Amino acid sequence: TPGAGPGVGARVTGGVGDPGGGSGSPSAGRAPGRRGRSRCGRKPLHVDFKELGWDDWIIAPLDYEAYHCEGVCDFPLRSHLEPTNHAIIQTLMNSMAPEAAPPSCCVPAKLSPISILYIDAGNNVVYKQYEDMVVETCGCR
Amino acid sequence: CRPRHGLEAAAVPRAQGAGQGGDPGGGGGARRGPSEAASMADGPLSPSAVEAVARVTRLSAGSTGGNRSSPSVVPHQFMLSLYRSLSTRALAPGGAPAPAPASATASAGGNRRALADTVTGFADQAPPDDASTETGQRFLFDVSSLADAGEVVAAELRVLRRAPAARDRPAKQEAAALGEFGEALGAQPFALLLLSTCPGAARGPRLLASRPAGPLDSARWEVFDVADVVRQHRLELPLCLALRAVGGPSRSPLAPRLLGLGLPGSLRPPPNERALLVVFSRARTKENLFQELRAKGRARGRPGAAPSAGRRKRR
After folding, report:
1. In Å, how far from its chain's centre is CA B61?
2. Distance between CA atoms of residues A3 and B8, nearest Å
3. Chain B residues 274-293 within an 8 A CB cutoff of chain A
4. A:B CB pairs within 8 Å
5. Which DSSP letter does residue B81 get?
6. What ipTM, to 2 d.p.?
């Protein structure tokens, strides 16, 4: 829902676009509107396992920075967003006829793992690497 | 997919815990395995790990008023050290991706552990037993959860040897049994450690490893490769391993205590000093968090594991 809070377990820290996302859009603080909407990029998303209620099985970390992707994928798409061919076409179609198709989606293009130390169902302590836990870059798809 | 506006910016400071976590397991192992680097890492635990230990301890003590049927789980220092050494970069704000367990293990020999993506620590569940401490040590591990763990790529048994106290050193007649070097009690030149499977109803003990029990100036962990026996074991049964000591030209049995193994009488060592079976495995399929959540849900559904109100609410 536009304008809704991030929900339980996730807090947005900061508020300025993360350079790691490569959006390069100095959008913070702008008024809503086409020029004010931030381009697709990586934004903070602090995940607190305790708030999720997962701290009864996760030993560490109790929180981490997951990031999220946010912003518009509108015409013309920037090359650093590494749009798919389909996204290029869809974005072009959207710019010509908004009712024909929505803009392409700003989504994680590259994710990285984190390691978690947890207690499994057999009460053994397990160290495991989980893939795709942190957004490294965002792109239009 | 729609852009969201009006994000509520809320600066959340990272938890800044304080604490030091020495590693008793790192006292200088006979072998430096992958995880050895972790167990021997110096420096404080990350704030998260310190907090985790405190939290788990609180849970164990039942101070949360939660589900009393929850067994106490005290993470072994080795596992905390492993996490600390392999996850430092991932925990750093804006840090690079976490290295796989492999990256730390590859440098220690580039062996099969480099293929692992999961490390499970099984705590010894053998009850203290006077008889066994005089003739040998017995270790019991519930490895049933390995059925879901994928391929076992490596496994090691870690057993702590303490520097024997003076009162534990052998009497003269025992020393004589060790031969002409028996007087050099601190060195135990002909003492051997023998690791085997426990004798069962169908078959006798199978020798897995033997090694000289070298001189001991300070506590250290003996690390035995037990990958083969773990792979061949029927996972629905507890894995039982036995450690014996022999000495002298005639290979007479020695009380393991003389070599710094176990504690006298029926004393049970603290959790961080108990034997640990460390299994390195690799998932056959790409796993996600939902598998863990499902497994936890199944465990809670067992008889006697009534969920607390808080858990029910979260679920």
Report:
1. 22
2. 9
3. 286-289, 292
4. 173
5. H
6. 0.71
CB B5 within 8 A of CB A72: no
Rg (CA), chain B: 22
Distances (CA, A) of B115 to B40, B96, B153: 22, 21, 7
**Per-residue confidence (pLDDT) for residue B307, from 0 to 100:** 55
Helix (H) or strand (E) holding A90: helix A85-96
> In this predicted model, what pLDDT tens digit does every residue of B187-214 receive, in sequence order?
445 788 999 998 876 677 889 999 888 7
Residues 6+ apart with CB under 8 A from B290: none
From chain B residues 83-122, the ones with a CB under 8 A of any chain A CB are: 83, 86-87, 90-91, 93-94, 96-98, 100-101, 117-122
* Chain A neighbors of B38, CB-CB under 8 A: none
d(CA B170, CA B111) in angstroms, rounded, equals 39
What tens digit of pLDDT does each residue of B243-254 get?
A: 988 887 778 888
Copy the structure tokens of residue B260: 């710094």
Within 8 A by CB and 6+ apart from B52, the residues are: A59, A60, A62, A117, B75, B80
Residues of chain B found within 8 Å of residue A29, distances taken between Cβ atoms = none
The pairs formed by A32-35 with CB atoms below 8 angstroms and a separation of 24 or more are: A32/B5, A34/A74
- C-alpha B163/C-alpha B96 separation (Å) is 41
pLDDT in tens, A10-66: 555 444 444 444 444 444 444 445 556 789 999 999 999 999 888 888 999 999 999
